[in-house]
TrEMBL record:
It holds the Pfam family Rhodanese. PANTHER family: FAD-DEPENDENT OXIDOREDUCTASE (PTHR43031), OXIDOREDUCTASE (PTHR43031:SF16). Residues 22-118 form the Rhodanese domain. It comes from Ruegeria aquimaris. This is Rhodanese-like domain-containing protein.
Length: 119
């Protein structure tokens, strides 16, 4: 006989990510491409690291390591819809970052009341 455990809620809601990022308790990373950020802006306070650069910029041993990641606590990642950010979450976890949350896409951020900024 098999018993299936009901999945427990895991992760961080987008609304909670908005609040934690605003209070400085969460590092928010946008993993979209440069052109996407230029055309739509990014979540207010987000660090922009395109997915194709993330492995190098998040690896403490790499010369391109981003200094804001040195003392990062909780991290939330997003992209346009959630696919690339799922991959980014996996990369960051593989490099030893924890906790890391995929909050989906930029639209989810906006729907949860998150502000946007443009460079």
């Amino acid at each position: 006989m098999f018993f299936f455990k009901k999945p427990s809620p895991v992760g961080l809601s987008v609304a909670d990510a908005v609040q934690q990022a605003a209070s400085g308790d969460l590092l928010l990373i946008d993993v979209r491409e440069h052109g996407e950020v230029q055309s739509t802006g990014k979540a207010q306070g987000a660090l922009h690291i395109p997915l194709m650069c993330l492995r190098d910029m998040a690896d403490r041993r790499h010369p391109d390591f981003h200094p804001l990641l040195a003392d990062a606590g909780p991290i939330a990642v997003y992209c346009a819809s959630g696919g690339r950010s799922a991959h980014a979450e996996s990369i960051l976890r593989g490099l030893g970052f924890d906790p890391v949350h995929n909050i989906g896409g930029l639209g989810h951020w906006v729907q949860a009341g998150g502000a946007l900024e443009r460079d």
